[in-house]
Design a protein that fits this description.
Length: about 160
């Protein structure tokens, strides 16, 4: 739900509509480069995306606004979340995972059988998003149950 404005809405030409600055900050000359909520999105970005510059997680879905932008999900829709799932129809949870990808993102899969040691620094798989479902299949899943994590970053 991005917001748009015409020149008359921004009398101080800071890239943020005066009404938005008044609503969130009580002033019309909000600093577009400021990050008041510490979510790594500045007020100008928050205005353009329609997110709340006072909340790190506008839609309260548990993922911060910046993390959602990176994952390609909507920071204003609590139902739009990045998630991974075991490969369907596979009896072994160690066989692999699938997720919905977004173009312009790099996905890295990490796997571990013992979280008391933490996640490994090296990923086992890397792929560029295609805009469709992606999968990682672990060809050597004889080690028993494995836990997976998928990291996302922009290209």
């Amino acid at each position: 739900s991005a917001l748009y404005m015409n020149a008359a809405d921004d009398t101080d030409t800071n890239g943020i509509a005066d009404w938005w600055g008044l609503y969130y900050f009580g002033l019309t000359n909000a600093v577009a480069e400021a990050d008041d909520d510490g979510d790594d999105l500045n007020s100008g970005d928050e205005f353009r995306m329609g997110t709340n510059p006072r909340l790190q997680d506008t839609d309260a879905d548990g993922a911060g606004d910046r993390a959602e932008v990176v994952a390609g999900t909507s920071p204003t829709n609590g139902m739009d979340v990045f998630s991974i799932a075991p490969l369907s129809g596979d009896a072994s949870p160690a066989a692999g995972v699938s997720w919905s990808s977004v173009t312009g993102r790099i996905y890295r899969v990490f796997c571990n059988s013992n979280l008391t040691l933490g996640w490994p620094l090296e990923h086992v798989y890397e792929a560029t998003g295609t805009g469709s479902m992606m999968t990682y299949t672990n060809a050597d899943h004889t080690a028993g149950a494995l836990l997976y994590r998928v990291g996302v970053q922009t290209n």
